[in-house]
Design goal:
By secondary structure, this protein is of the alpha/beta class. Helices cover 27% and strands 22% of the residues.
């Protein structure tokens, strides 16, 4: 594998003589079928031509060159990682673009999946789907819990501290999670959840046999937020009709953007994960636009955090799968609130594309340009992926109508550029597991407990075995919760 001498897109121009070069960004194109009203008005169905599984041609409207020569029809051809036509099923799409990535978060890898496309191009259907035809997110969660099997950590020995650090749990620092679980799962039944998980495990024994490790334990955490008008709002906090939503505060450090007070809750099976996402999705900002009756007017970001620890090695790790349903790019029309929404959406999408362009140009430029990630909250949050601390997948959803062929051509042009982009990783700084005073916990934690930020195992403070007192397990999904904690759940 080749190496490079300069960190591409590194604002500090740090040298990376021994840095490993990641493969290109994976870019997939999905073309949705024509729908009813498009067929009624006779949309031209011959504007896109799939050459093979990687190449697609866009037919441009003919333009007259002069009064003598006839108008010329031209084609622009683009190459991406893989192209899917309207016959592609949700299951096939997941197998091709996200199945392997989902498996790799169990090895400490971090992934970002973004959908791009014009409003009404099928992005939300691709991500969420329907109960009978689930999209990428439900299938990703199902595969995660198939891997986890019965090795789910219901004791919740560790929890995320933000999106980068780990914290050892105690009776006091799980109170918020207990209350949020009660808020979201108030009508849930423990017996039903467990039976549902058992049925899934029994139906898919081969996956568990291949991937589940007996001595490893996992906890799965979910956070769900939206970026609306360049502000971050927690989708796991239901907005009040009497009170204006309060945006979350962002804090910048040298490595990333920290979202303060973002809710993260542990989920113990597939149904809990689905219920959490359904709850958050119902709080997302939507409005009517020229192209969609209920268009998403925000970027929705789902973060699935996996914490892994071994019975004997005592080295917890944390990895993430970010799945981002980006709002559709539209012409800046309308007035007032709608115009502001559209302008902010277009600005953040443009900044995202600018970051990819800079990364691509820096591959051959003698003088490295700085990443413009600070120009948008979206790119500030995803900065770690622009400097190689995770892998990126872009799924471009295409509206096949001739009416929008100019926008489609621009999208495919960007897709081809992104597919050629290679990112040089920058080593993340060392992170710590926060140990709050003398934490009562299992003796197996012992000495040298170590945590990890973004999937990399790093040294942190040592907990002496003499300071770790033995106590009963902390369980927040059943009857084993101590009485004083159970009373607030």
């Amino acid at each position: 594998m080749s190496t490079d001498t300069t960190a591409i897109g590194n604002p500090n121009n740090e040298t990376t003589n021994t840095r490993r070069v990641e493969p290109p960004v994976n870019v997939y194109v999905r073309i949705r079928p024509f729908i009813g009203d498009e067929l009624v008005r006779g949309e031209n169905q011959n504007m896109l031509c799939i050459r093979d599984e990687k190449r697609i041609a866009v037919k441009l409207y003919p333009t007259a060159t002069n009064n003598i020569r006839p108008a010329q029809t031209s084609y622009n051809e683009y190459e991406v990682t893989r192209i899917f036509d309207h016959n592609c099923t949700q299951e096939e799409l997941f197998e091709q673009i996200l199945e392997q990535s989902t498996d790799e978060i169990f090895t400490g890898s971090n992934w970002l999946l973004c959908t791009l496309g014009l409003t009404n191009s099928g992005k939300t259907h691709t991500m969420f789907g329907t109960p009978k035809d689930p999209g990428l997110i439900p299938q990703c969660l199902q595969r995660i819990f198939l891997h986890v099997g019965y090795n789910i950590d219901t004791k919740v020995l560790y929890k995320p501290d933000g999106l980068e650090n780990l914290v050892q749990t105690n009776m006091n620092n799980l109170q918020d999670e207990i209350n949020y679980r009660k808020y979201i799962f108030k009508d849930d039944k423990d017996d039903y959840r467990r039976s549902r998980l058992q049925n899934i495990v029994q139906d898919q024994p081969s996956i568990l046999d291949d991937h589940s490790v007996e001595d490893e334990h996992y906890s799965v955490w979910i956070s769900f937020f939206e970026l609306y008008n360049e502000s971050v709002f927690d989708l796991l906090i239901k907005p009040s009709a009497m009170k204006k939503r309060k945006p979350l505060r962002l804090m910048q450090n040298n490595e990333s953007t920290i979202i303060k007070d973002l809710v993260q809750i542990p989920v113990f099976d597939l149904k809990e994960a689905e219920d959490t996402i359904r709850f958050g999705y119902s709080n997302r900002a939507t409005s009517k636009t020229d192209l969609n009756e209920a268009s998403s007017r925000s970027h929705a970001v789902l973060c699935i955090t996996l914490i892994t620890f071994d019975e004997f090695e005592e080295e917890p790790t944390m990895s993430h799968m970010y799945i981002c349903d980006l709002a559709g790019n539209e012409p800046s029309t309308g007035t007032g609130k709608q115009l502001a929404e559209t302008c902010n959406i277009n600005t953040s999408l443009m900044t995202f594309k600018d970051c990819i362009r800079v990364l691509n140009e820096n591959q051959t430029a003698k003088k490295q340009m700085l990443l413009p990630y600070r120009n948008s909250v979206l790119t500030s949050i995803f900065r770690p992926f622009f400097i190689g601390r995770g892998r990126t997948i872009i799924c471009c959803n295409v509206n096949p109508c001739a009416t929008f062929i100019s926008q489609t051509n621009d999208l495919l042009k960007f897709s081809a550029l992104a597919q050629k982009t290679i990112i040089v990783p920058v080593e993340p700084p060392q992170k710590k597991v926060v140990v709050e005073s003398k934490i009562k916990g299992p003796k197996r934690l012992g000495q040298g407990v170590r945590g990890a930020a973004l999937g990399k195992k790093k040294n942190h403070q040592t907990v002496d075995s003499d300071d770790v007192e033995e106590q009963s397990a902390i369980i927040i999904d059943g009857s084993a919760v101590p009485t004083d904690v159970q009373s607030v759940s």
